[in-house]
Amino acid sequence: MARTFNTSAPDFETRFSRFLGEQRADGHDVGGIVAKILDEVEARGGEAVARYTAQFDELQIDPTTLQSDNVDLAALAADCPADLKAAIDFAHDRIAAYHSAQRPSDHSFTDEAGVELGWRWTSLESVGVYVPGGRASYPSSVLMNTVPAKIAGVDRIVMVAPAPKGEMGPAVAYAALRAGVDEFYPIGGAQAVGALAFGAGRLAPVDKIVGPGNAFVAEAKRQVFGRVGIDTIAGPSEILVIADETANPDWIAADLLSQAEHDPSSQSILITVNEAVGRAVDNAVDKQLKTLATGERAARSWSTHGAIIFVADLDQAATIANRIAAEHVELAVADPDGMLPKIRHAGAVFLGHHTPEALGDYVTGSNHVLPTSRAARFSSGLGLYDFLKRMSVQRASPAGFAALAPAALRLAEAERLPAHARSISIRSNAVQDPGTGDDG
Length: 440
Ligand SMILES: NC(=O)c1ccc[n+]([C@@H]2O[C@H](COP(=O)([O-])OP(=O)(O)OC[C@H]3O[C@@H](n4cnc5c(N)ncnc54)[C@H](O)[C@@H]3O)[C@@H](O)[C@H]2O)c1
Ligand SMILES: N[C@H](CO)Cc1c[nH]c[nH+]1
Ligand SMILES: [Zn+2]
What we know:
The chain is an alpha/beta fold. The protein folds into three domains: 30-103 and 122-231, Rossmann fold (3-Layer(aba) Sandwich); 236-377, Nitrogenase molybdenum iron protein domain (Rossmann fold, 3-Layer(aba) Sandwich), CATH 3.40.50; 397-436, no CATH class. It is built from 17 helices and 14 strands. The strands form three sheets. A six-stranded parallel β-sheet has the order 1-11-10-9-12-13, sandwiched between helices. A five-stranded parallel β-sheet has the order 6-5-4-7-8, sandwiched between helices. It has a three-stranded antiparallel β-sheet with strand order 2-3-14. Helix 14 links the parallel strand 12 (328-332) and strand 13 (348-351). The longest helix is centred in the N-terminal third of the chain and has 19 residues, at 82-100. The chain is globular and about 80 Å long. Bound molecules: nicotinamide-adenine-dinucleotide, L-histidinol and zinc ion. The site of zinc ion has 5 residues, from helix 10.
């Protein structure tokens, strides 16, 4: 049974604000644990990574190569069944098509002062892609991380994924080879994020770390940010469904559980204008939980972090959804297009009754690495842009320089930066006297 809220209750605002502020760390001091692991990895490199890999994943790896004799990508991939390879190829091509369409253009223009301005997009040199692997195996995350990096033109793509007790799905291995990963290390958690950020053994540091993971992985990415780039905080999965009387309660229950089953720290929320739908979904969740192999962690997620919120109308539903800023928002309503403009903060939106979030997890082509923990208020999901940077470019002609110089000079004086002022004035003299060799 999840918690219920009703916006018409007098204590709604107090209870809802408290709910919004809750951490989903389930009793762990995640920040402290991760800081210690990162310190150790920075100080001791491969030795620390090997030690934590033995402790958390029960896998022995070589502290120099960070490899294990038990995990061989090519051998594993050979065991991937043909129909699963075909599904991975299908997803790969759809993800490639979607992300190819995201490529931005370089741009330049000359303004009325005679100054040429613009920007150029260039790709990152090296990225680390985190593929989760603690509780489940994620070939789909291999593709979501790697395909856009490849399309962007990243030179070196380093994949890490934990292989608990040396076990790794053949599909993960096949997806890695299919997508074109350059290096692979069977490591996970904060120690893998540290190895990517600081370097460890033969693993040279990367420029940016992307990809989803549990609370430890998400926190480790947050702590190394600045030393390296990161995409966003893509932690334990979340789903928020807005449903009206046209929604099918069994379908909504299945969608809520599809994210609850990822992790006990996941969060599933139903917002509904219809009391009967709310009650029917709650019952359907209880019934479906009993049939799931992942029912235990899904039940923990639903009872600890889940919620059903009863609202007066769809406008109120949108306001509340925007405050939550969930990773995934499904609009299971009669007019999803009418509702879409009201949704401002969400990692990804799924329209109508036949677009379950799980379709986007695998094969619509859009990226499933998405902001969680309300980070959708200020960031977007993984995309081609994450593997590109925008460089500004400018050129002033002698006339353009003359038009801009007086204001620049005045600002340099106001900031009391005489070398800046001289860098302008030394040229102002040259522009007035072309004989001094200014070449524009
Ligand atoms: N937001 C997204 O885009 C997105 C996408 C896919 C998956 N996910 C999330 O990824 C996560 C996958 O989690 P997972 O656990 O299966 O795999 P994971 O690879 O993220 O985490 C496994 C690692 O966690 C570390 N760990 C576990 N318990 C620890 C402890 N007590 N102290 C220190 N480190 C510890 C271990 O090093 C282990 O290797 C789920 O939360 C899922 O919801 C999110
Ligand atoms: N729902 C996850 C993102 O939160 C992605 C995923 C991968 N496999 C299944 N689901
Ligand atoms: Zn999922």
